[in-house]
Design brief:
CATH class of one domain: Alpha Beta
CATH superfamily of one domain: ANL, N-terminal domain
Number of strands: 25
Radius of gyration: 22 Å
Helix content: 25-40%
Shape: globular
Distance between the termini: 60 Å
Bound molecules: methylmalonyl-coenzyme A, adenosine monophosphate
Number of helices: 12
CATH architecture of one domain: 3-Layer(aba) Sandwich
C-alpha cells in the first residue's frame, strides 16, 4: 500500500470512507469508491514499466493517476490536445507500455500502436501491495518546455509529491475539511499534483470544473468549496467579472483561501480583487522540476507582487551571475533563485546532459528565475534569465520549439518567436517571419493551425509580423531584443 494517500487505505482513520473524494461535473466518487476504482485499474497495469495517461479534465484521469501511484508504476500525463510532433516526441522519449484513457475517447493515430486500457471509474479491486513505491521511485514524468528543442520529461519521485503537498498543508493549514475547486488542465503539476493529489493526500475533496469559468468557481465556492486554485489568467478574468457579479463577490469573500500560481499575478488584478471582495489572493511559486518552493502562508501577509517565503524543507538562495550567493536579503540585490530539497525532481528523462547542467556542484537546482528578497525573507520574482521562455496563460512555452514548427511551414523562410505583454495571458506569443514568397505571405490563422496541429493549441502564435529580414548579429544569431512591435 502506498502511503501517498492514507485516506485511501481501508484502515484509514482520517477521512470517512463515504466522504466525497472527487467530483467532475455530475460524477463523483467517495473515498471508498475511489479506492475500489483505482484498485481495479491498478490491478490491470501492475508490472508495467511506465504508463501514459490521456489526461482529459475528467474523472478518468484522476483515477488513472491514482491507480498508477498505487501500483507503483510511473505515469506520463499527455495533453489531449497535443499535436502530432509533440505527441510523437513524448511517446518515443518515455516509451510507455500502455495508455490509460476514458472509455469511448478517440485517441490519435500516434497512440494506435500502444495497448489501450479503458479506465472504469466503477471498477472494483483491492489496493495492490508492492510495486515501485519507495521514496525515490519515479511517480510521474511531466514534460516541460525549454528554450530550444522539444520538451524534456521531468522525472518526479514519490518523495517530492509527498513533501511538497505536506509543506503546502503546513503553509496553508490545508486539511481534510477543505473542499478545493479548480478548472486547471491535468497534464501539468499545478492541476494534477496540487489540484488533484493535494486534496486526496489530505483526505479532503476536489470539485473540478472541467473547464475554468468565473461562474463555475463562484457556484462551487458558494456551495461549500473552501479553496480556489488558478493561474493569473483565471484571476484576471475573475477581476474583470467582479464589478457586475454579486454572486462572484460573495463567493470570493467567503473562501478560506484563494491561491494563484504558475506565473506572476499582476498587482493590478490582485488589488482589484482585494478592493471588490476584501480578500487577498496568495501566491505560491514552483516549477515542474521543483514542485513548490515558496508560498505566502495562510497566516502571513499576502503582499501583492511577492511569492512569500520558502516552504518547510526547501533551501532557497539567490545567486549572482558569477555564482556568488547573495548573503543578506536587502530588497534590492537581484539574483537567480536556486533551490535544494526533497521536493526536487530526479532527472530529465534520457537527458543526462541537461540534468547535469541544471544542478550546481552542491546540489542546488538552477531555476532560471531572477528575484530579490525583502528584508523579512519574502521572495519577489523580477524576471527570467532566458528571454526564449514565454509564459502564456500559465503555460511555459519555448520560443525554439515554435520557431522549429514555423520553419516546417512551406510559406516560412525564416522565423523568430517572442513574447509580449498581454493583460489576459500575461504574455502572448508573437511570430516574426520572413515569408518564402513575399507576394503571398501565410496568414496568422494558417500558421496558428500549423503550430496547434504539430505542438499544442496553447503554443500557437496570437500575433504575426512579417519582415523582409530578421535582425542578426555578426555571428548570424537573431537579435530578439531588436524585434519590437512598434
Ligand atoms: C484556438 N483553439 C484552437 C486553435 N485556436 N485549437 C486548435 N487550433 C487552433 N488554431 C482552441 C483551444 O484549444 C481552446 O479549446 C480554445 O480554442 C481556447 O483556446 P485558448 O485561447 O488557448 O484558451 P484560453 O481560454 O485562452 O485559455 C486560458 C486558460 C489556459 C484557461 C487560462 O491558458 C489554461 O488552462 N492555463 C493553465 C495552464 C497551467 O495549468 N499551467 C501549469 C503549468 P478548448 O475551448 O476546447 O479548451 S506551470 C506548473 O505546473 C508549475 C509547477 C506551477 O507553478 O504551477
Ligand atoms: P513550468 O516549467 O511550467 O513548471 O513553469 C515554472 C515557471 O513558472 C517558474 O520557473 C516561474 O518562472 C513561473 N512561476 C510559477 N509560479 C509563479 C509565480 N507565483 N510568480 C511568478 N512566476 C511563477
Amino acid at each position: 500500500m502506498s502511503t501517498l494517500f492514507p485516506a485511501l487505505s481501508p484502515a484509514a482513520t482520517g477521512a470517512p470512507a463515504d466522504r466525497p473524494a472527487l467530483r467532475f461535473g455530475g460524477r463523483s466518487l467517495t473515498y471508498a469508491e475511489l479506492a475500489a476504482a483505482a484498485g481495479g485499474t491498478a490491478g490491470r497495469i501492475r508490472g508495467a514499466g511506465r504508463v501514459a495517461v490521456w489526461a482529459t479534465p475528467e474523472m478518468e484521469t484522476a483515477v488513472a493517476v491514482v491507480a498508477a501511484l498505487l501500483a507503483g508504476v510511473p505515469a506520463v500525463p499527455l495533453n489531449p490536445k497535443s499535436g502530432d510532433g509533440e505527441l510523437a516526441h513524448i511517446l518515443t522519449d518515455s516509451e510507455p507500455s500502455l495508455v490509460l484513457a476514458p472509455p469511448g475517447s478517440e485517441l490519435p493515430p500516434a497512440l494506435a500502436a500502444l495497448e489501450r486500457v479503458d479506465v472504469d471509474v466503477h471498477a472494483t479491486g483491492p489496493v495492490p501491495q508492492g510495486g515501485r513505491t519507495g521514496d525515490g521511485d519515479p511517480a510521474l514524468v511531466v514534460y516541460t518546455s525549454g528554450t530550444t528543442g522539444p520538451p524534456k520529461g521531468a522525472v518526479i519521485p514519490r518523495r517530492a509529491l509527498a513533501t511538497t503537498l505536506d509543506a503546502l498543508a503546513d503553509a496553508w493549514r490545508w486539511t481534510g475539511d477543505d473542499v478545493l475547486v479548480q478548472g486547471l488542465p491535468l497534464f501539468h503539476v499545478h492541476g494534477l499534483v496540487l489540484g488533484v493529489l493535494g486534496p486526496l493526500r489530505r483526505g479532503g475533496s476536489l470539485r473540478h470544473l472541467g473547464r475554468f469559468s468565473a461562474e463555475g468557481a463562484a457556484r462551487e465556492l458558494n456551495d461549500g468549496a473552501t479553496m480556489l486554485f488558478g493561474v493569473p489568467t483565471m484571476y484576471h478574468r475573475i477581476a474583470e467579472a467582479l464589478p457586475g457579479d454579486p454572486e462572484l463577490v460573495k463567493a470570493l469573500a467567503g473562501a478560506r483561501l484563494l491561491v494563484s500560481g504558475s506565473a506572476a499575478l499582476p498587482v493590478h488584478d490582485h488589488e482589484r480583487i482585494a478592493a471588490a471582495t476584501g480578500r487577498r489572493v496568495i501566491e505560491r511559486y514552483g516549477m515542474t522540476e521543483t514542485l513548490m518552493n515558496t508560498s505566502v502562508r495562510a497566516d502571513g501577509e499576502p503582499r501583492a507582487g511577492t511569492v512569500g517565503v520558502p516552504l518547510p524543507g526547501v533551501e532557497l538562495r539567490l545567486v549572482e551571475d558569477d555564482g556568488t550567493p547573495i548573503a543578506e536579503p536587502d530588497g534590492e540585490s537581484v539574483g537567480e533563485i536556486q533551490v535544494r530539497g526533497p521536493n526536487l525532481f530526479t532527472e530529465y528523462l534520457n537527458r543526462p546532459d541537461a540534468t547535469a547542467a541544471a544542478f550546481t556542484d552542491d546540489g542546488f537546482f538552477r531555476t532560471g528565475d531572477m528575484a530579490v528578497r525583502d528584508p523579512d525573507g519574502y521572495v519577489r520574482i523580477v524576471g527570467r534569465k532566458a528571454t526564449d521562455l514565454i509564459k502564456s496563460g500559465g503555460y511555459k512555452i519555448g520560443a525554439g520549439e515554435i520557431e522549429n514548427a514555423l520553419l516546417e511551414h512551406p510559406g516560412v523562410r525564416e522565423a523568430a518567436v517572442t513574447g509580449e505583454p498581454d493583460p489576459d495571458l500575461g504574455e502572448r506569443i508573437v511570430a516574426w517571419i520572413v515569408p518564402a514568397d513575399p507576394a503571398s505571405p501565410p496568414s496568422l490563422d494558417a500558421l496558428a493551425d500549423h503550430v496547434a496541429g504539430r505542438l499544442a493549441p496553447h503554443k500557437r502564435p496570437r500575433v504575426l509580423r512579417h519582415l523582409d529580414a530578421l535582425p542578426r548579429n555578426d555571428m548570424g544569431k537573431i537579435m530578439k531584443r531588436a524585434l519590437t512591435h512598434d
